[in-house]
Structures are given as C-alpha cells and as structure tokens.
Amino acid sequence: MDNDGITEFYVFDQDDIEVYEGKELTFVTSSDFGNDERVNFPIIFDIDGDTNKELIFVLEETNVIQSYSFNGSDLQQEINVSYSGLADSGDGETMIACREANDCILLFIEDFDACSGISNCETASVAHFNTTAVSSQITLQQTGGVSSNDRGLYCRSGVPQMVVDDYDVDGETEYIFTFGAFSEIQASANEAGVYIYWIGSDGSSISVEGSEFIDLEAENDPFDFDGAQSCDTQNFQDVFTSPLVERDLLNDVGSELIVGYQTSSEEFKMTMYDKDYNAGDDFPPADDSNGNIIGNPFLADAFPESTGDVDFCMVGYNRDLAVIPQEFKQIIVCGSKFKSGFETAEFQHTFPEGIFNVTTNYEIATTIAHSVQHSNAQTDSIDLNEVLTAYGIYTIDDSTCSPNILLKDLCDSSEVYANDLGNSFSLAIDSEGVGNDDLIFMTDVGLFYIDDGIGNLPPDSMSINTNPCVTDSILKQNTTLQITVTATDGNSDVFLDDDDLIINVSIYSGKSYEQRQGATNITSGSPKQFFFPVNVTGASEKITVTVSDGTNDPVTNSETTFTVANTGLEFGDSSCDITLLEDVEIADVEDGLLVDAEGNEFNNNTITSSLVQVADVSGVSVKLIYVLLMLFLAVVIIVGTQFSGQRQLNMTALMAVLFVVEGFAVVIGAFLGIFGIGLILTLSVILLGGLGIWISRIFIGGQQGM
Q: Which residue among 90, 402, 551, 642 has the highest number of C-beta atoms inside a 10 angstrom radius?
C-alpha cells in the first residue's frame, strides 16, 4: 500500500492489525483498532482518492467502518465512520466493496444469532458509504411470521466477496453479491435459500437493479433450521458461495454469473445466470456432485479445447462413511461453455484417512480455493491449470477423464504439492513480481511463506562491439562511432520467459558534453546498435553501457575508454569487441571488508581499495605490493638523505629514521589488515634484528677505536 514495490501482509490478531513485509515475513508494525470483536473480510482500495490504497474493514459488533494507510513504517487510521444510527443495524455479518473513491457499499445484517418475532425479526440492508458518512439505506429482505415463535437468520457466504462489474453493459458498474436466508415459520415448512442482488450506484445513492432467489431443499440437512442456531453453529455460510462474474464470451454480450450451492447436506452444484438475470445451465447438468462446498467458483483453463481462463471450477470435500476404510475425497467440479461434448468434468483426489475437514470452520478462511500454475505439465501442448486449496496443489487434467451416463466426465486429480501444515488457509500471491505465485499459508499459530523457488533474475551477460575499434587506437574527430550492444536476460526457469531489456549508452560519460542514447523492449540476445558523432577530441574518454530488465536494479554497468584526435580511424575502418572493466575481477565489499580476487579480506578504505585494484590488474598480491612500497620508501629515504647534495645524516641518525618510518609502515599495514600476525612478527624480527646488528656494530666499533 506504500507503493514501494514490496508486498505487505496484513494480519488481524484479536484487536491488532499486524504488518509483515516481503517473502521473509519481516514484522514491520502493528496497530490497535480498539475492540476485540468480529471483523468482516477486509478489502484494499484507494477510498479517499489520494493514489495510495487503504485497508478497509468493518467492526461488526460496534457498527464502525475503519480504514488504515501504511507509509512504509507505520499504520495510520484514515476513517472511522459509524453506521449504528441506521435502522436495523445490529451485530450481524457485513460485506463491503468500492468501485471508485468515495463510492462504496455496505451490506449489513441485523443479527448474528437467529431472531424471533411475528414480523421483521431479521433484516438485511445495504447502504452507500464514503470517507465521512454512511447513507442511502435500502432494506433488501426481512423475515416475517405469524407467531412469536417464528425465527429467521441471514448469513453471508463462507468466503464473502462482492463483485464490481458492468453486468448488464449499461455503462455503469454494479455491486453483485449473495447472502443466505434460513427461517422457521410455524405455519409452513422450514425454508432455506440464497439471494443474489445486483445494486447500482450513482456515486451518492444506490438502487436495486436485479435480484434472484435460489430455493434450497429445506427438508435436507444442514437446512433443517430449528431457530436455535447462529451463522457459525452449523456452518450456514458454507451452504452457498459468493458469485463469480465473467464476460459472456460465448455470446459476446454482457456478463454471466455463476454461483454454487448445496442441494442437500451431501451434494452441491453450480448455476449460471445470464445478463438479464435469468437462470441458465446447471453444472453438473443432471447428477449433482458429492460433498460439501470449499470456497467460491473461480476461473480456470480446465479444458485444452478452450483457450485462456474461460472455464470455471469449484471445489468440494466428500467423506464417504459407507466405504471401509472411509474415503476422503477432494472434488473439483469444472464447467465450460466452450468445451465440445460434455460441459462438466469432475476431478477427484482421494486423501489418506484422517485428513482434516476444512468445512467445519467459521471465520477461518480455509475454504478459499484458487486456480494456479505451479508445474510445467502440459496436455496437448497447453499448460494445465492447477488448483490451490488448504490441502495443497492439485491438477485438473481432462486427459484422465472418462464420460459417464450422468452428463459429467469423471477424472483423476493428482497432487503436485501437499500442505503439511495441517488445517490452514492458503493464498497464492506473486509477491516478487515474476509472474508466478508463491504460497501463503496461515494456521492458528502462525503465517508461513512457501517459496516456489522462481525468481526474476537480472541480465547476466553483455557483449559490446564498436566500429571503428576503440581498443588501442585513436578515432578521428567528427567520425561516427557505432556501438552494438548484445545483452541476455538471466531467467532460465521454464516458468519465466526472458525479460525484454532496457539498454542505455553514453559516450564522453561524466563530461559536460556527454551524449546519451537508450532503447527499451529489446529482446534478450538481440543486438541493438547506437550511433554517436565523436566531435570532441580527448584522451581516455568514457563509454558507459547500462542494461536492466525493468524489474531488478540495473546490474550490468560497463565502462571502457576511447581517444579522439584530429586524425585517426573513421567509421568502417575497423571493428572489435571491447573489453569491459567488469571483466577484471574488481574487489567486492562485504560487511565493511574489502575482498580481493584471492579471497583475502582487508579493511575497506581508499588505500586498500587502490591496492586491491592494482593487485587485481597486475596479478601481484596486495601484501607483496605493500612490502615493495616499504622497500621503495626506504630507498627514497637513503637516496634523499645521503646523495641529495645536502648535509648527510650520519649512519646512526639514518638507521633511526629508517627504523621509525618502516616500523610505522608495519603498524599501518597491520591496521589496514594487509599484514597478518605471522608477517608482523617476521617483519618485527627483521627490523629488531637489523637494529641489533647496527647497535652491536656501533658497540664493537667503539671498542676497537679504543
């Protein structure tokens, strides 16, 4: 949300919002939003129009809408809007969505627990909200009865989501959502169903543009509503899904809506609605799929005969108690308007006994499912989509299918990756911006980042050719210099295509008369030519070439030199590949240390940096260069004091000067990290030995003179 290119993860922990960053899940900050209470599924949207997105959520028990911005280090509350003054506000569930800045909608249900009363004991309403107020309330549904014992309950879906889409192609986007209705009316049978609503907005007020009701078979469990439940006691939110909306690609007009729902306690299906809100095909068309719903329908490329994500799937979990040993199956049901023959396929994967059942949780989003691509498996040369659930990643490969008489293909689903964290919810997110998702799992004890090992690598090689050749030659002033750059991207994984590259070239780099040229969208491995007039004479002028893939920082920055004079080579006289300065092993700086080509470490400063570069170019070690410099310094002192024509130092003074200067040089070498303890001891012994010999000679000579 802070636009720094690093993905943040926002975790609600009781009354705190915690922020984690990057694939390392580094904790950044947290903020107390005030109450330890039930919170809806948050959204991220730029509600105030400042180009920075905010985290928006509802405190459902105190009827407050809050939003927070993140500046890279801290969370800051932006809005705190109450809707407790609206009619029929209570502690029921909510959903929110925004289509533009200051143009958002709130669905709120009066009670979380089943209510009782003769009429209007439970209400579902919508209202418009912005950064300052909630207004324009519309009552969508109210339960009604004939006695004080009549009860009713409204619940959102297990993975609540509002869709924003111009569904009827009228130029205005609508808010589209579902909620469930469960009631016990003494004068009639128990009722259960799913409401679908299309809500329009003019930016300040809202209106109902369409609605549909799916009548669930109330005589079957889990719809045997006895009035004593709330939305979390029998998982009424898992009886139906939020809608999936996609373009009507078959007729190329308007949109289609797909919603999933239980037809009994052990069977489910999907129904499609057209742009005029009319129910159309069912998936499966005849025999329903066995199991309980896991998550909302999602787009997928389930059938090779279709192209792109134009198919759709939904996941279920089935526990067959009649089979010994008991079978636990994940059922992935996929439908298509583009597949020839059967329109529905059911992909089944059998789990080992004892696998956790994600359909038994409330407010733990283990029922989220996604279509993903995490392997390079192919069918008919088309990549298979795979499905991510709380259990792991599973294939949908219709080459394993066999038709049956119930108008649905029966297929196998193979496991690509198994989640060994246990009962948890999963998210697929491309946090590194490489075009492939990593996985996020959250359990009741922590947040886990599963890296797929794919990373977008920077450019890894570059060659440069010049015409005329600039190596060991002189160019004629005002001739044309052609520079041809060929760079390759570093991506080698089968999932990632080579990036298009950005190449920038300059001549006379760093001078006031510098010339620059650049090119974008250069295919990896393709040569790109640049032409410059070399119109200024000079020696050791610089050519700089920088290559980037647009995602990583520019990493291939190369320099070479050239010379221009009144006479010299002209364009077409010669050409050559030039040697890049990066081809010479320049020392690396790590943790404050300088490392030469041999792996020796030195304290990093101007002196050692210069010595290391000389050593790398010459091939002579830094230690030997420093010792030679000490020897050279001694020679300079001797020549300067004994043969300069000035008054000469006597031998005693000369040796004293040499001992002090060379000893000081040894100390400096030790401080710079050039001399290890062994060499320091050796040089100290040599210096002290020399000093001892000199003193003894003075002593012996003095005696002989006597």
A: 90
